[in-house]
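Extended Data, panel c. Modelled sequence:
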Amino acid sequence: MPIIKTENLTKIYSGNIKAVSDLNIEIEEAEIYGLLGKNGAGKTTTIKMLTTAIEPTSGNAKVAGYDLLKDREKIRNIIGVVPQDLTTDADLKGIENLRMIAAFYDIPKSVAESRINDLLNIVDLTDWGNKYVSQYSGGMRKRLELICGLVNAPKILFLDEPTLGLDVNTRAKMWKYIRDIQKELGVTIILTSHYLEEVDELANRISIIDHGKILVTGTPDELKSSLKGDIITMQFSGSDEAEAARYYPNALYSSISGEDKVRIKVENSDVELPKILSYLTQKGISPLTINVKKPSLDEVFLEYTGSSIDEDIGPEQFRRMMQNVRRLR
């Protein structure tokens, strides 16, 4: 039985803005589930409904057996939420932050101390628990944020951009800690991220959401293999050349991004690339750049939504990203 199951979950904001429309998803117990979508696609609204932060306009869901509409307080007690914005107090020690959360949940002191020690150990912060958070590195701060969502021993953990602002190496280390947490605690993890390689690395299954609807769900390998072809991307000096290149006759699929970039899917790039270059020569066209990609999660996202996941990072998203980067330094 799924630990989360939604039934036509819908959220309509004032002005008849339908953020989520008849959403039906099933998330299995103890899996890492990735929810991917551009800004405004509906993933944040979905998470807010499942964590009882906002009420749905219609539809319902079962969260660990509890009714989303009737058992909101019970649901809050069995979930953990780690937002992308930093929430720990830098003027307190790491262990003081964790104790404050334990007190909020009325966890008995002896239970809280044992649990906090275990959590610090899982993310290799045992020696830093009694040091002020202001002394932590960016990666250590993120690890502390991670276990803050686990103090109440949740069945389900919601992670929103858990490695935002970290460098590549530190991000990879965070992936290990997330996997360790899932394995050792058996917690179900719902993950949102703008780093597609992160979701590819961590998630057992992934759903892509766009305009409030789920477009596709599957394992990373299933989604990538569904593309059945290689992607050739070419950039040209103008829109007329790009438009001409788009109509290569052996393309399984072609599209234009911006005004001068063409994306062509072919069965086998090794076979088709020489033919494409010959076709362009006959048209008197020469690409400025050529890039060949085997199927990746980036290509899956582009295939189903028509744009890359980071194309639409707006001023507010950029501001929040930079604010977190500065705070993690």
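The chain has a mean pLDDT of 92. This feature is highlighted in the accompanying rendering.
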